[in-house]
Amino acid sequence: METITPKWLELARELFSISQCGLAYSKNEYDLDRYRRLKEISAEIITGQSDLEAESVSASFSMQAGYATPKVDVRGAVVRDGKILLVQEKADGRWAMPGGWADIGDRPAEMVEREVREESGFRVKAAKVIAVYDANRFEPLEFYHAYKIIFLCEILGGEPSASLETLAVDFFAPDALPPLSRSRTSEFMIREVFEHVKDPTRSAAFD
Predict the structure, then answer these.
(1) Position 4 pLDDT exceeds 80
(2) Distance between CA atoms of 31 and 20, rounded to whole angstroms?
(3) Which of 13, 141, 12, 152 lies closest to 77 in space, CA to CA?
(4) b/e string for 118-154 if b means 16 or more Cβ within 10 A?
(5) How many domains does the chain have?
(6) Nearest alpha carbon to residue 138 among 177, 192, 176
(7) Which own/partner pairs from 112-118 qualify as long-range (CB within 8 Å, at least 24 positions apart)?
(8) With 60 as the cut, is the pLDDT of residue 63 above it?
(9) Domain stops at, among 62, 85, 103
(10) Any domain includes 1
(11) Cβ density class 25-36: b for 16+ within 10 Å, e for less
């Protein structure tokens, strides 16, 4: 279900983006101090409105550099015999299409093929882009803005095998889904996957 981003999160993101760009491009020490303060205010808003610890937010901020841009999450949609491949995430015990944050230097298709293999044990080939979503339209909302690219993938081989990040691997019918890790995969996304399976000519969904 699509959700509305709370105003505090919109403002915190905007303050962080302004501070990040200012810190990346400003040469004036006085301006740099002001941009650092904006970043501190953004962190204070986040910790005041969420369960996140100040140290966690600061550590996450420190990993960001340069112009502020959305992160990219890739997901592999694998359907066999009318069922979709899902992996159980160690992080929360819930289920999602295999995937994760894109790495620097990898092509998107290579990235999703590797993620599916590492998290599920299946070797696949990315065949089609199903959707490009603004990941921040769905609960639970994350601080960082992110785009989610979902690829329809074809199985080439392999066997189901859990990984360091997953507890189990299985196929599920669309009307018998397990509890989903909704920041990774939602019912809405899975419905879109099966629409593409029914109609191979369907155009990619996008926001």
Answers:
(1) no
(2) 12
(3) 152
(4) bbbbbbbebeebbbebebbbbeeeebebbbbbbbbbe
(5) 2
(6) 192
(7) 112/74, 112/75, 112/76, 112/149, 112/151, 112/153, 113/76, 113/153, 115/74, 115/76, 116/76, 116/78, 116/85, 116/153, 117/158, 118/163, 118/165
(8) no
(9) 62
(10) no
(11) eeeeeeeeeebe
> How far is Cα 96 from Cα 84, in angstroms, rounded to an integer?
10
| Angstrom distance (rounded) from CA 199 to CA 197 | 6
The model's confidence at residue 1, banded by pLDDT at 50, 70 and 90, is very low
Of these ranges, 25-29, 63-67, 170-174, the one predicted with the greatest mean pLDDT is: 170-174
Please, what is the Cα angle at 7 between 3 and 9, to 5 degrees?
80
The DSSP secondary-structure symbol of 6 reads: P
Report field, pTM of the whole predicted structure over 0.85 = no
Give domain status of residue 16, yes or no: yes
The predicted-structure confidence for 194-207, as pLDDT tens digits, reads as follows 999 999 999 999 98
Query: In angstroms, rounded to a whole number, what is the distance separating the alpha carbons of residues 182 and 177?
Result: 12
Both 171 and 117 in a single domain? yes
Domain that holds residue 142: 71-206
